[in-house]
Automatic annotation (TrEMBL):
<dbReference type="InterPro" id="IPR008775">
    <property type="entry name" value="Phytyl_CoA_dOase-like"/>
</dbReference>
<keyword id="KW-0560">Oxidoreductase</keyword>
<protein>
    <submittedName>
        <fullName>Phytanoyl-CoA dioxygenase</fullName>
    </submittedName>
</protein>
<dbReference type="GO" id="GO:0016706">
    <property type="term" value="F:2-oxoglutarate-dependent dioxygenase activity"/>
</dbReference>
<dbReference type="Pfam" id="PF05721">
    <property type="entry name" value="PhyH"/>
</dbReference>
<keyword id="KW-0223">Dioxygenase</keyword>
<dbReference type="GO" id="GO:0005506">
    <property type="term" value="F:iron ion binding"/>
</dbReference>
Length: 269
C-alpha cells in the first residue's frame, strides 16, 4: 500500500476553508469491501448497543429506522478498526493536525432513498476535544451529491464558536439539533465519488441533504480524530487509539453524546 500525503497547497486550503477533499484515497476494491461488510451487518440484524434496525412494520414509514447508522463499529468489527487506523488517514491527519493523531470514533451511515437529511451542526459540540478540536475523515462509499443526501459544509466556519444548538425541523432532519450559519457565510455541497475522503475541522458547520433519489443509497464511513496533545474528550469516545492500535487512557473525560443525536434541547441540558 502506497502511503500518500497532501501537498502544501492542500494544507493551506484546509487551514483557510476548514475542509479538504482528497480524491481517490481508497481504491474501488477497498470501498466494495467496506460496503459488502456493512450490508452483511445489516442483513444479520441488531447488535445491542451499536445497531438497532427496525422491521418495515415497526419503522412505520421512516426508512432510517430500518437503516439506522452504526455507532463505533470499530469496537465490534475488525475491518472497521482496520480502516479507522489506516496509515493513509493518519499520514494526512498528521499534517492537518501538525501532531500525532489519535482515533476517537467510527460510524457507518446507510442513508437509503427517502431518508431525511441531518441539520447543520458542529462535531466538537459532541466530541468535546480540548485543547483544539477534532477532525472528521468522511469516506464516500457511494457517489455523494445533492440528490442522494450528500454533505454540505460552510467554508470558513471553523473560526466560529461552538454553538449551543436549537431544535431542528423534524420533517427535514433525523437529528433534532441545529446551529445557525454566521453572517456572511453560506453552505456549499461537497460532491464526492466512492473512495474520496472529506476532512473537516470539528468546528466547521455542516449537514446533509435528504436523499431524494428513487434508488440510490448514500453510504459513508466516518471517523473522528484528535491530536496527541488532547487532554479532554467526551466520555462516549473513550478510549482513543494510536495508529498501532494502542489505547490512550490518560485523557480526562466529560459527559458527551454521540455525534448528532436525537435529543431535544431540554435533553441536551
Amino acid at each position: 500500500m502506497m502511503v500518500e500525503n497532501i501537498t502544501e497547497a492542500q494544507k493551506e486550503q484546509f487551514d483557510s476553508d476548514g475542509y479538504l477533499i482528497v480524491k481517490g484515497l481508497f481504491s474501488s476494491e477497498e470501498i466494495e469491501q467496506l460496503k459488502n461488510r456493512f450490508m452483511q451487518i445489516h442483513s444479520e440484524g441488531p447488535i445491542p448497543g451499536y445497531f438497532s434496525p427496525l422491521s418495515e412494520e415497526d419503522a412505520k414509514g421512516d426508512i432510517l429506522k430500518m437503516y439506522p447508522r452504526i455507532m463505533h463499529p470499530h469496537k465490534i468489527d475488525s475491518l472497521s478498526m482496520k480502516y479507522l487506523l489506516d496509515l493513509r488517514l493518519f499520514s494526512i491527519l498528521t499534517k492537518l493536525l501538525e501532531e500525532e493523531p489519535l482515533a476517537a470514533q467510527s460510524m457507518f451511515y446507510y442513508k437509503p432513498p427517502g431518508a431525511k437529511g441531518q441539520a447543520l451542526h458542529q462535531d466538537n459540540f459532541y466530541l468535546k476535544m480540548e485543547p483544539g478540536t477534532c477532525i472528521a475523515a468522511w469516506t464516500a462509499i457511494d457517489p455523494s451529491n445533492e440528490e442522494n443526501g450528500g454533505l454540505y459544509v460552510v467554508p470558513n466556519s471553523q473560526h466560529a464558536e461552538i454553538q449551543c444548538p436549537h431544535r431542528a425541523d423534524p420533517e427535514k432532519s433525523f437529528t433534532r439539533e441545529e446551529v445557525d450559519i454566521p453572517d456572511g457565510l453560506k453552505p456549499i455541497p461537497a460532491i464526492l465519488e466512492p473512495g474520496d475522503v472529506l476532512f473537516f475541522n470539528g468546528n466547521v458547520i455542516h449537514g446533509s441533504y435528504p436523499n431524494t433519489s428513487k434508488d440510490k443509497f448514500r453510504r459513508s464511513f466516518i471517523c473522528h480524530y484528535a491530536g496527541i496533545s488532547t487532554t479532554k474528550a467526551g466520555n462516549f469516545y473513550k478510549p482513543l487509539y494510536k495508529q498501532d492500535g494502542t489505547p490512550v487512557t490518560d485523557i480526562e473525560t466529560t459527559e458527551s453524546n454521540p455525534c448528532g443525536t436525537e435529543f431535544t434541547q431540554a435533553e441536551i441540558h
